[in-house]
């Protein structure tokens, strides 16, 4: 799991570095276009994802103590919060599409750095959403298996690994949120 997490951090790190280079080389334009992101949606999603990480950590603690029902409930809560994040992101994407903020021929903010910013926005948040969807499925399956007593429940490496993956998703959002939503608003 640690090798997988390291490879994911390298992948996202490359995206973050590329974004930072363009942000530095086109600072005024990138800051101006960053103000077009919806700060309310981004902030709500940050709160949802952070609470889901707390629920996951509590599920891990419950698992360590052998509290099967509590762990299953907290895992279900974690998955539900992940779904809430995706729902909010869906509303945000719909608004962005209505405002023609998808780079291409109908892009509302012109060419150059504006399209570059929004290209990074769609790529990074889309890849994050894919990772979150995988995490939701894994957490929901694990919760179902715990609830159904499908395997002996004791402190397990599986629950710890699942927690690491979920926290990676949160850490990525902790970086994406200020990069995409707070830039240009100071």
Characteristic key phrases:
single chain; 186 residues; mainly alpha; 6 helices; 81% helix; elongated; transmembrane
Question: What does this protein look like?
Answer:
Keywords: Membrane, Transmembrane, Transmembrane helix. Belongs to the cytochrome c oxidase subunit 3 family. With 186 residues, the protein is mainly alpha-helical. It has a single domain, classed as Four Helix Bundle (Hemerythrin (Met), subunit A) (Up-down Bundle), CATH 1.20.120.80. 81% of the residues lie in helices and 0% in strands. The protein contains six helices and no strands. It has helices at 2-25, 27-34, 39-64, 68-98, 113-147, 157-182. α3 packs antiparallel against α4 and α3 (39-64) runs antiparallel to α6. The protein is elongated.
Quick gist of this model?
The chain has 186 residues and is mostly helical.
Total individual domains: 1
Rg from alpha-carbon coordinates: 18 Å
Gap between N and C termini, in Å? Answer: 38 Å
Overall 3D shape: elongated
Which topology does CATH recognise? Four Helix Bundle (Hemerythrin (Met), subunit A)
Look at the structure and name the CATH superfamily: Cytochrome c oxidase, subunit III, four-helix bundle
Biggest sheet layout: none
Q: Using the 3D structure, state the CATH architecture.
A: Up-down Bundle
* Average pLDDT metric: 92
Total number of β-strand segments?
A: 0
Provide the helix percentage.
Answer: over 70%
| Discrete helix count | 6
Q: Could you give the order of the helices and strands?
A: HHHHHH
Structural category: mainly alpha
Residues in β-strands, percent: under 5%
The CATH class: Mainly Alpha
Query: Which consecutive residue ranges, at least 5 long each, have pLDDT under 50?
Result: none
